[in-house]
Amino acid sequence: MRTSLTTRMTAAKRSAEFVRSQSQQRHDNLMRDQEREREATANKTARLRELRLAKEASEKEEAALKPAPAKRPRPRRSKQT
Q1: Residue spans with biased composition (Basic residues) (predicted)?
Q2: CB atoms within 10 A of CB 15
Q3: Three-state secondary structure of the chain
């Protein structure tokens, strides 16, 4: 009788450890996937920022080469009395 009780307990323990290891494995995979997504988002953001800064620099350069539009003087209005 003692052996069957011990056997059942060890079987239950093995089963519980198996379930726990499966749960831990799912958790580890989820954390790994989240980290990959975070890295991908950070890389994408950095790339887009570099593109935006390069575009702004080229637009600023173009604006410096382009002559400023001549301002037309406003006609003077006479005072209404």
Answers
A1: 69-81
A2: 10
A3: CHHHHHHHHHHHHHHHHHHHHHHHHHHHHHHHHHHHHHHHHHHHHHHHHHHHHHHHHHHHHHHHHCCCCCCCCCCCCCCCC
Q: Say yes or no to pLDDT of 1 above 60.
A: no
What pLDDT sits at residue 27?
Answer: 97
Distance CA 40, CA 33 (A): 11
Percent of residues, the chain, with pLDDT higher than 90:
63
Give the Cα separation of 73 and 70 in Å (integer): 9
Domain edges within the chain = 25-62
First-to-last C-alpha distance (Å) of the chain: 120
- The type of residue at 62 is E
